[in-house]
Each structure stands twice: as C-alpha cells, then as structure tokens.
C-alpha cells in the first residue's frame, strides 16, 4: 500500500514539510524514510539462503580505495550469544533475535596481503583505523536497508564496543580487527520504533557551517519529540548524579549519557589491539 511521503517526512522529523518531491514516493526511498528499529521478533528462523543474499548486498557497499576492510561475523554458537547478551542485560533482544551479526573494521587482511606480496604494511595509524571503521559502518547500513526490503527488522548494537575486553577474545578477533557494532536481525513481531530525527534546519548547512540558532531549534525539537515519545521519569539517566528534571528531553538524555564517558577506555584498547592511531 502506498504511503503518503509527506506523512513519512512528518513522522521522521516531526515538522510539516514545505514541499516533497514526487521522488519520495519511490519504494526504496520511502522505505528509508519510514525505517524503524525492531527489538522484538517473531519465532521464525531467517533462511540461510535469504541471509546469504543480504550479506552479499552488504558487502556490495562502497569501500575506501577498494580496500574492502569490512568483515562480518555471524554469531551462531548459543553460548557465545548468551555471553554477549549477558554483557547488556537491559537489551534482551541481543539474545532473543534469530540472527546476531557483528560488523568489524578489518585492517588485518590488508596487512597479511602486504606480507604475502612483500610490501610494507602501513595500516595501523589513525587514518587506517578511520578507513576500516567507515567501511564496516557502510556495510552494516547497507545490510539494514537490504534486510528491511526483504521484510526483516534490525537493531544495531553499538554498546558492544564498551565490552571489547570480552567480545574480542570471545570472537577470536586478532589485532587489527575490531567490532564496530552488532546487529540483531529477524522477522518483526510488531511495528517497531521510528525515531524522530533532528530537523534538517539543524543538520543541513549551505556553503558554511552555521549553528547560530541551535539553542532554540534544540528546544523546539525536544518539545516535539517529548510530545510523541516522552521519556518517563524512571528512565532519566543517573538521577543520583544529575537529579530528576521536571522536563526531560532528548538533549538532556544525550548530554547526560555523554557526561558519563561511555567507552572511555576505547582508545587504549584499540592501541593494544593493533592500531597506533598516530
């Protein structure tokens, strides 16, 4: 059934679009605009033949300089799934999803190929880390779009980067290979969650970066988002440290999260795991 593209834009940004080009009615574009995160899945297996096609689509993503520095792990071992899920008890869908994938930045492969061909391997500095990480992220997003076109739902799990000391040994990830994010995959059991995004007035710029009106636009966004998906008082982050706010919007939630310095040991681990980050 066709979906009104104006409604998709309203749902995504919470504002009334001034004008929507007919190209928004294209099935692929409309699917992206209407994308939802799914954390609850039907008790239905994803056929391996379907997964193979989706993985092939993911590996068709753009890659920096054709280096192709993304690798994907399909975590099928029940004990490994359980151990990863136990790291984040607030996210039971990690263990419940029919499929769990881990998308990795892989600088190791080119290093090994350089050794095979007798060339020096300069693939450990900050640019190398950045290149491999972006490759993995593009691969993940391409998989998500392909999966949704096939009727599946997905939920990225970036929090596994907070547990590298456990995840890397558990998955036998050697130096130069780092998890960028996990991904839960399955046939949705519900409609999922459409996250309201910051409006283009905040994230799009013309010719020069301009955030002069940021304060008012963020206040407006907080109010629109709260009207649709209010964060309940019991979900406010770290109340012992920050107290309870009478009004608790997206900006309060994200800045409290940022203040907690999640992943503060990430750089040190990355340096020990094969990247100099010079």
Layout of helices and strands, plus pairs?
Layout: H1 5-13, H2 27-33, H3 48-58, E1 70-74, H4 78-87, H5 93-96, E2 99-106, H6 108-117, H7 126-149, E3 153-157, H8 164-170, E4 177-186, H9 200-203, H10 214-228, H11 239-242, H12 250-259, H13 266-272
Antiparallel strand pairs: 1-2, 2-4, 3-4
Walkthrough of the structure:
44% of the residues lie in helices and 10% in strands. It is built from 13 helices and 4 strands. Strands 1-2-4-3 form a 4-stranded antiparallel beta sheet.
Q: Average pLDDT value?
A: 95
Q: How many domains in all?
A: 3
The whole-angstrom Rg is 21 Å
Task: Give the overall silhouette.
Answer: globular
Q: How much of the residues is beta strand, in percent?
A: 5-15%
Can you tell me the CATH architecture of the largest domain?
3-Layer(aba) Sandwich
Short structural description:
The chain has helices at residues 5-13, 27-33, 48-58, 78-87, 93-96, 108-117, 126-149, 164-170, 200-203, 214-228, 239-242, 250-259, 266-272; strands spanning 70-74, 99-106, 153-157, 177-186. The chain has 278 residues and is of the alpha+beta class. 23% of the residues are buried.
């Amino acid at each position: 059934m066709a979906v009104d593209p104006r409604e998709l834009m309203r749902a995504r940004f919470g504002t009334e679009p001034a004008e929507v080009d007919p190209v928004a009615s294209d099935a692929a574009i409309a699917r992206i605009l209407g994308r939802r995160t799914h954390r609850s899945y039907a008790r239905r297996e994803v056929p391996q033949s379907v997964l193979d096609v989706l993985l092939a689509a993911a590996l068709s993503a753009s890659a920096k300089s054709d280096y192709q520095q993304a690798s994907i792990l399909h975590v099928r071992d029940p004990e490994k799934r359980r151990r990863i899920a136990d790291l984040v008890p607030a996210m039971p869908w990690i263990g419940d999803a029919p499929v769990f994938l881990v998308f990795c930045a892989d600088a190791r492969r080119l290093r090994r190929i350089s050794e095979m061909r007798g060339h020096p391997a300069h693939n450990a500095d900050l640019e190398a880390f950045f290149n491999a990480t972006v490759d993995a992220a593009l691969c993940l997003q391409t998989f998500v779009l392909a999966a949704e076109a096939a009727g599946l739902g997905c939920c990225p799990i970036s929090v596994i980067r907070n547990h590298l000391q456990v995840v890397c040994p558990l998955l036998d990830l050697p130096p130069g290979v780092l998890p960028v994010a996990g991904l839960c995959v399955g046939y949705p059991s519900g409609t999922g969650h459409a996250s309201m995004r910051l409006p283009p007035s905040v994230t799009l710029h013309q010719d020069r970066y301009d955030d002069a009106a940021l304060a008012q636009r963020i206040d407006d966004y907080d109010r629109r988002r709260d009207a649709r998906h209010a964060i309940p008082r019991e979900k406010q982050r770290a109340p012992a440290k920050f107290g309870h706010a009478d009004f608790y919007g997206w900006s309060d939630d994200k800045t409290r999260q940022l203040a907690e310095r999640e992943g503060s040991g990430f750089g040190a681990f990355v340096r020990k795991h094969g990247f100099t980050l010079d």
